[in-house]
Write a structure and sequence with these properties.
Keywords: 3Fe-4S, Electron transport, Iron, Iron-sulfur, Metal-binding, Transport. The protein is of the alpha+beta class. It has a single domain, classed as Alpha-Beta Plaits, CATH 3.30.70. Helices cover 20% and strands 22% of the residues. Strand 2 and strand 3 form a beta hairpin. The model has no long low-confidence stretch (mean pLDDT 95). The structure holds iron/sulfur cluster (SF4).
Length: 64
């Protein structure tokens, strides 16, 4: 699994970090980022839910 976050699109709503706190966090400006070492999703089934929950579609999840 490969996760990418379009920071130009992210509005810092935080839904991703709420849905999958083991994978997503928010940086000092409130924008989403993937926790270190979790770029592959860490097997967290909530990653796709987090992508769905993002109100602006900033998260792309693809199978590698
Ligand atoms: S849910 Fe979307 S808009 Fe909100 S912080 Fe996460 S990536 Fe950004």
């Amino acid at each position: 699994m490969d996760i990418s976050i379009d920071k130009d699109v992210c509005i810092g709503a935080g839904q991703c970090a709420l849905a999958a706190p083991g994978v997503f966090t928010q940086d000092d400006d409130g924008f989403s980022e993937v926790l270190p070492g979790r770029e592959d999703g860490g097997g967290d089934a909530m990653v796709r839910e987090a992508a769905r929950a993002c109100p602006v579609g900033a998260i792309t999840v693809s199978e590698t």
